[in-house]
Design goal:
184 residues, Pnp Oxidase, Chain A, 2 helices
C-alpha cells in the first residue's frame, strides 16, 4: 500500500504543471522511510544521501599477464597485471533532493560559459557505503575513493502502461575501494 501511495505521489509531482516547494518529499521528509527495510546508506561530503534504492556491486578485475620463461618454452606462467575497478551505479526515485544533479553538474554544466563547464576543484569525492541491520547498527562499511560522475540520468523513460516510478541514476567512475575495518 505504501509503495502504491509513493508511486502515485511521484507521478503526480512529475506531471503537475507547478512545483510546490512546500510539498512533502516522500523520500527526504523526516520519518518517510522509517517503516521500510533499508539496509544500506550511501554518504558523501559527510552526509547521507536520501532515497538510494540500488547500489551496484563493488567489483574489481585484475588482468592476467602470461609469459614463458626462457629456459622452459612449453610452460606458460601467469602473473597479475593492472587492476581495473568497475563503475558504481546508484539509483533512486526522482525526488526534490539535488545531490545527484549538483555533483553531475560539476563534471559538465551546459550553458555555464566557455571554459567553465567543468569544476576541477571538487568534482571528485570519496563516498562511504554502510551496510546496516534492521536496528540501524552499522555492520560493515566500504570506502570508495576519488569518485566522479561519468553518466547521469535525470529522468528515466516514462510510460503510462508501465507502472514504474521515475528514477534518477548516477554512474560513478572511481579509483578503488576498500573495506573499512574500523567498523565492527
Amino acid at each position: 500500500m505504501k509503495k502504491c501511495i509513493l508511486l502515485i505521489f511521484i507521478v503526480s509531482m512529475i506531471f503537475s504543471s507547478e512545483v510546490n516547494s512546500a510539498q512533502v518529499d516522500p523520500v527526504t521528509s523526516p520519518g518517510a522511510l522509517k517503516d521500510t527495510n533499508i539496509n544500506f546508506l550511501v554518504k558523501w561530503d559527510g552526509k547521507s544521501i536520501p532515497g538510494i534504492t540500488k547500489v551496484s556491486e563493488l567489483r574489481r578485475k585484475t588482468e592476467i599477464v602470461q609469459y614463458r620463461g626462457g629456459g622452459d618454452p612449453n610452460l606458460i606462467r601467469r602473473s597479475p597485471g593492472k587492476t581495473e575497478y568497475q563503475p558504481l551505479v546508484l539509483k533512486r526515485p526522482r525526488t526534490h533532493d539535488k545531490e545527484f544533479e549538483q555533483w553531475a553538474n560539476k563534471v559538465w554544466s551546459l550553458g555555464s560559459g566557455l571554459g567553465t563547464e567543468m569544476s576541477l576543484k571538487d568534482y571528485r569525492k570519496d563516498i562511504l557505503i554502510e551496510l546496516r541491520d534492521d536496528t540501524g547498527k552499522v555492520l560493515m562499511a566500504f570506502k570508495v575513493y576519488r569518485c566522479w560522475p561519468s553518466e547521469y540520468v535525470a529522468l528515466t523513460a516514462l510510460d503510462v502502461d508501465d507502472h514504474s516510478v521515475a528514477m534518477e541514476i548516477l554512474i560513478l567512475e572511481h579509483e578503488g575501494w576498500e573495506r573499512d575495518y574500523e567498523v565492527r
